[in-house]
Design a protein that fits this description.
Blueprint lengths: L1 E5 L3 H12 L3 E5 L4 H10 L4 E3 L1 H7 L2 E4 L18 E4 L5 H4 L3 H4 L5 H8 L4 E4 L6 H6 L11 E6 L2 H14 L2 E4 L22 H10 L14
Parallel strand pairs: 1-2, 1-4, 2-3, 4-5, 5-6, 7-8
Antiparallel strand pairs: 6-7
């Protein structure tokens, strides 16, 4: 499977590392300076780097991991009919205050899906620290294997991402449609805390829409 990345930051590089280890083809694109992509190539032997349009043509599945406001600049027409893994989060300190998210009118992934109306969006790999991608992956069936939440409105697409998550080293828990993906957004009990499947299911259920955990409490 060909995996494309729009965004070449720490999260993308961690996921790309796992994809390469699983024998998948990887290509990353970034709007950052060319020397940054040289660094990415050195860190990820076997990965390709290129322009966003090249990544879109290449990929069977595209991970988007960029500052959330930048989603509006993505090439909507080119991304039509593509499976998008939304690994983004809303960080007010970085993104500025965004009323639609602060007032819970919409989840971040619902908004991404609105911005990409001809794509299929599944939220995944947004509730794990980049550093944990290198240390917490394990083979299927490993006792206590870490689980990650997945949410989406298309059951076939969700199943593809669940299977892909398993191939990369994690159990996956279907957390429901995009409207319920707030349960693993920033500062919720399931956000970036290492749980096995049973623990993650409990954490998702414990989330409250208007309650946030103290900033940084998810960091070990």
């Amino acid at each position: 499977m060909n995996i494309g990345f729009i965004g070449a930051g720490l999260q993308s590089r961690g996921i790309a590392h796992l994809a390469l280890a699983a024998g998948q083809q990887v290509r990353l694109a970034s709007s950052r300076r060319p020397e940054h992509m040289g660094e990415v190539s050195r860190q990820l032997p076997g990965a390709q780097v290129g322009m966003i349009e090249e990544v879109i043509v290449f990929a069977d599945l595209i991970v988007i991991a960029i500052p959330l406001p930048a989603v509006v600049s993505l090439p909507t027409a080119s991304l039509a009919n593509k499976l998008i893994v939304d690994a983004n989060n809303y960080y007010p300190d970085r993104d500025g205050r965004i009323a639609r998210f602060d007032t819970h009118r919409i989840t971040t992934s619902e908004w991404v899906a609105q911005c990409l109306p001809r794509s299929t969006v599944v939220k995944a790999f947004s509730a794990v620290l980049a550093r944990d991608l290198y240390t917490d992956a394990s083979l299927s069936g490993t006792p206590g294997r870490r689980a990650l939440p997945v949410a989406g409105d298309d059951p076939v697409a969700v199943k593809r991402v669940v299977d892909w998550t398993d191939a990369l080293g994690f159990d996956a828990v279907d957390a429901g449609p995009l409207r319920d993906s707030w349960r693993f957004e920033r500062a919720k009990p399931a956000y970036c805390v290492p749980f096995d499947r049973a623990g993650l299911i409990q954490a998702l259920a414990a989330a409250e829409r208007n309650v946030e955990l103290p900033h940084g409490s998810w960091r070990r």
